Amino acid sequence: MHTRPTSQIDEAAGLAYAAARGFGLVIASDAGRPVASPLPFVVEPANAARRLAFHVARGNRLAELAAQGGSWLLVVMGPDAYVSPDWYASAEQVPTWLYETVHLSGAVRVMSDPQKRDHLDRLSATFEAWHAPKPPWTADKLTPARHAAFMQAIVAIEMTVEMVEGSLKLNQHKSDADHIALVSALSAGADAGGRAIAARMAKLRPHLSGTQHEALVEPVKTRT
Questions:
Q1: 3-class secondary structure, 37
Q2: What is the CATH number of the domain that holds 23?
Q3: CA–CA separation, 203 vs 77, rounded Å?
Q4: What is the pLDDT along the chain (224 residues), one digit of tens a residue?
Q5: 36 lies in which domain range?
Q6: d(CA 4, CA 6)
Q7: Distance between CA atoms of 11 and 68, rounded to whole angstroms?
Q8: Which long-range contacts (CB under 8 A, 24 or more apart) does 205-208 make?
Q9: Is residue 85 within 8 Å of residue 94, measured between CB atoms?
Q10: Is residue 50 part of a domain?
Q11: Is residue 161 part of a domain?
Q12: Is residue 79 domain-resident?
């Protein structure tokens, strides 16, 4: 991954970001041809080795490739937004795209049936917790026959994370005036990704508040 020094994040922050997102594009190689699937995943309990787990339908080509082992890539994307040069407070700017992404890579293996059951319980518990206080769904709500059929239909895969690369490209190198100008423009837009990026940018510079914030935003509001 190519990153600016200003947007690069450390491995611990990258792994935490990926875990919080819980969804990404899993990519493997099949005789030189890329094979990919968007999948939910969960970071396994902390131990000496950083691990994450996901599962695929048994008919997915990734299921066969996992049995062969090898190193795979998981791309986790956050919000993104196009930035128009017209939005900056300063002149001589060019178009750009702001985004957040983390790449995780490492060796994979197929999990055993007992490990698969544990993985599914952790996966559902993780994402059901997002919807609290709703009572969480558990596999106990399935009939034994339905649960057995589901287990047979999927293959659980574990990745040992050997490399974490992260880039939060939020124009960290720009001036306070340009920063506030972009936050103002993106916040006012209809694009949900743009509004999310604006919120993330604002958190990077909490000192820009009150009268200082208003003084920087006002020229942007009146600029044509």
A1: strand
A2: 2.30.110.10
A3: 19
A4: 787 888 888 899 999 999 999 999 999 999 999 999 999 999 886 665 689 999 999 999 999 999 999 999 999 999 999 999 999 999 999 999 999 999 999 999 999 999 999 999 999 999 999 999 999 999 999 999 999 999 999 999 999 999 999 999 999 999 999 999 999 999 999 999 999 999 999 998 988 864 344 444 443 333 32
A5: 8-171
A6: 5
A7: 27
A8: 205/176, 205/179, 208/176, 208/179, 208/180
A9: yes
A10: yes
A11: yes
A12: yes
* Number of domains present in the structure of the chain: 1
Amino acid identity, residue 28? A
**Which residue's structure tokens are 């100008």?**
181
- Retrieve residue 192's tokens: 């949900």
Residue 51 lies in a domain: yes
Q: Return the structure tokens found at 123.
A: 């996966």
Instruction: Return the DSSP state at 175.
Output: -
Tally of residues, the chain? 224
Taking the model in full, what pTM does it have?
0.86
Q: Which two tokens stand for residue 96?
A: 């750009």
